[in-house]
Amino acid sequence: MSASSESQITAWLATQQDAMVALLREIVDIDSGSYNKPGIDAVGDAVRRFLTGHGIPVETIRQPKHGDCLRATVMRDGGEAGTGSRSNIGGNVVLMGHRDTVFPDGEVARRPFTIRDGLARGPGVADMKAGLVMNCFILAAFAKFGGAPAPLIGLFTGDEEIGSPEGRAVIEADARRARAVFNSEPGRVSGNVVTGRKGGVFMQMRITGKAAHSGGSFTEGISAIEELARKIQAIHALTDLPRGITLNVGLVRGGQSVNTIAPWAEGEIDLRYIDPADRDDAVAHIGRIVEQSFVPGTKADLTINGEFLPMTQSAPAKKLFELYVKAAADSGFATAGESTGGCADSGFTAGVGAPTICAVGPVGGKAHTPDEFLRLDSLVPRAQASARAILRLPTTGL
Ligand SMILES: [Zn+2]
To answer: Is the pLDDT of residue 367 over 60?
Structure first.
């Protein structure tokens, strides 16, 4: 690394705020909820156009159900893209982000991208379309000034908000060869990054009872709704706040009519945990509750619909974090690490051993709500901080 490349790259990024906002407006104004594959792929088209316009090759990894994965590569200065392992100097640096949002189709028409008082708003503006924009400009900066110190991979995936059922394999494959992973989820309102995340398991229980007229033949019925209610109480009772284990049945459905004993009911369960060792135990416990019939005659089954691994801080990840804190200070902002119960793809990369730092994206808040906002004045400094950290990664590995 030469001192001039750091100053060239950060100086160029400092001139790009308006261009960043233009790209952000373009991609926020495309509905891209997790189940809207055409929308997520349209966001991908905009990203691809930007990157290829800066001479960066972009590979499309087709996904049958969810958004395709895009993989952009900026070569090492004067060299080839690395295929080496993490243990040698050829390990890649991965910039990661998801293009899907939690919002339904039509959300953009209701509340398109707007700017007021230095805050941008719109569906997914912080979580995490601003992070995608930031990654695009970091890749462009390295491409413009002769390449990156290590092969730089930009991953733009399409199904994070539902647990990355298809993106996970792509992410893990790159993470296994990475010497550092930067996930551009939104920076906390405090300016902090995320150094720990809970694991999450999303499950569904389906209960069958027996229909009967609740007036005329009450005793012939078996209530699936009553069974569901009892199971919910037993499952919620597994919550252990001091250990960081939480249970929430967040969705319920069931029944046929007010005057019918409910023949069916179902509930969706969200388990969160900190210690990887707690995962199997909690899932087994839930399994036993689902198997048990509180109301005689009911039957139930349990399926796992999605899952995130916890992100824990390894020693190399701690070094990466310390390097980032210094890079942030040199980019004009203070940052610290914090833990959150929210899950993200960074759990997968940490899970395969890649030194990972999360929430390095531009700063925003109120994600997943109509009040979501992004601080526009954080676009440039956060991009500069990641670029500086990339330039300062030790050549011998973390
Ligand atoms: Zn996100």
So the answer is: yes
Put simply, whether the predicted model's pTM sits higher than 0.90 gets the answer no
Check if the beta carbon of residue 136 is closer than 8 Å to that of residue 47.
yes
pLDDT tens digits for range 258-279: 999 999 999 999 999 999 999 9
263: nearest Cα among 218, 298, 294: 298
Element (H, E) at 294: none
Residue 47's nearest CA partner among 157, 147, 142 is 157
Residues 75 and 57: beta-carbon distance below 8 Å = no
Which one, of 296, 372, 310, lies nearest residue 340 by Cα?
A: 310
Q: Measured in angstroms, how far is the CA atom of residue 343 from the centroid of ligand 1?
A: 9
CA–centroid distance, 396 to ligand 1, in Å, is 31
How far is Cα of residue 88 from the mean position of the Cα atoms in its chain? 28
Structure tokens at 130: 């601003």
Q: At 74, is the secondary structure helix, strand, or coil?
A: strand
Using the 8-state DSSP alphabet, how is residue 33 labeled? B
Dist. CA 196 → ligand 1 center (Å): 15
